[in-house]
Here is the input.
Amino acid sequence: MSQRKLGGDVKKSQEDISLSGGDSLNSRETKVILSGKTKYTDYKVFSHNRDTTYIDTTLTIQKEYLFNYLRKDNFEFLEFHNQGQTLNNLGYSFNNLKQFPDLGFTAKQVSYFGIDDITYYEVPTPTTEILYRTGLEQGQVVDALFTLNFSKRLNVSLSYKGLRSLGAYRNSLVSNGNFRGTFGYRTKENQYEIRAHLAIQDFFHQENGGLPDDDLQKFINEDPNFDQRSRFDVNLIDAESQFDGNRIYIEHSYKLISSKDSLTDKDFSNLKIGHILTNESKEYSFSKPTATTFFGTSNSTNAADNSAKSKITNNELNLEFNSKYVLGRFKGKVNLTSYSYGYDTILNTTSTINKLKLEGNAISFGADWRAKVKSFQLNAEANITPGSGRLSGTHLQGEALYTKDSVFTVKGTLLISSKSANFNTLLHQSKYDDYNWENNFSNVNTRDLGFDFSSKWINASLNFTNIDNYTYFDENNTPQQFGDQITYLKVKANREFKYWKLALDNTVMYQNVSSGSSVFRVPEFVTRNTFYYTDYWFKGKPMLVNMGITFKYFTEYNVNAYNPLLSEFTIQNDQVIGFPTFDVFFNAQVRRTRLYFKIDNAGAGFSKKNYFSAPNYPYRDLTIRFGLVWNWFI
Here is the structure.
């Protein structure tokens, strides 16, 4: 069975369709022999939700969209000038909303690998993948993967993504590192299974606060003395932020009753007990050694450590079985969770904060259900955390899929969530007087109803979202909860037209905020249109070439402002932003190596300087990048 999503094709096994949201490695080839004994379907990739895909060495237009630092399609995002810096939102998705609140400082977590981002492998031979991409001014991105099966039942993988990019403006260095190690093992009869991962991540950013007003006018007026962007003054010259995260994840199960039946043939089979341990810590700090009035007055206690720290430990116990009476698989689960967030000491001499930390324990009850009835696939997940603590709330997520052979797939999704706002909106400290608060916000209640239609003719999606107690940062950089309801509609469609060796790939998104537009800002239209040429070059067809131009445009709106101290986006009413970009690319594939050459914002030389990622933060100028993705199958 195959399912086509916006942004790429995803192939999944018949019984492994679940609540997944991200793009996956895939392959459009039907039968590709990598050696005398192996083919591409032997090189398997498993998502956290156990969807099965394959290591992909093909070159498609979707690969052009994915060749960026995040290796994700950035259609709904607006990048900052330096890669790895952060992203502003052009659209919002709520289908991956988590059960519990997070530390916050969300602008620093756009490149953070969460649990759902970790993949596991099964390969017949040692396998390596290397991505290289040039940075801005100085530096580069390298993303390396090595995975090896010691036997068919034991796999280990090691991955590291490193970025160092100087940036075109002063004090805009980005230095990120993401290490991931995974392990998977099962006994001969699959009676005992275990998988685990370790993630160690760090993000160091210089923060320049954007351009001062005088220099902003020089940029807009195209002052020739400032064609070299490092000549511009910036608001902050020695500010830095640091975000670190460490996580250990272990999931294992033991099958008490084994059976080789299908999911729904027997009354009761495949009884399994399981345990999942998650231990995750995060830490954020901002430093500005010299005095500044950019953030207002300061009264520092000269504390040695000004970091905000969080730690969440979760133990899940579950019982799973198959039965024809539930039409598939059913899992009951209990979660025991402890959390801690806060600071080691008071950071401001004028502070009136009563608590240094938010901490506590919670118990959750839940169930997962996966059923299959003819061409229908049903998946549901429910969790409830009773009580009145910070983790109390509910989380219900479900989807129903109908597939008509390989002709089309229709999917409906439902999300109902009630959970606390992120911890940094509840408690925050700083040496700057205006950045100290202690709040007791109500739970944020989110309801999202979605529909997806995928076929060879068109791919379309519709999401209708309501949010109560929406939490945001206002114009004064202070967290607030919106008193009314947010009502948000998003419609997205993709259609590709092909003729001869030419193609036109079109993606259009329409958005409407009928209630709450004063605090929930999105552009009405976003469009991306790519005209490209694909063909094999040279005798014997050794090289596949893919080259063209991508046009992207979003209508003007009050784009959110970026606050470097908070590492959050805040609402603003002073500037509307909306502009087109043209990117030119030339990509090629030689065997299992993909080569990429790209000119970002190619129209910058003749267009008005009205392109910004956020107020006072110019988008990147014309930039030439190149890189490659190289696979080895030893």
Summary: The mean pLDDT is 91.
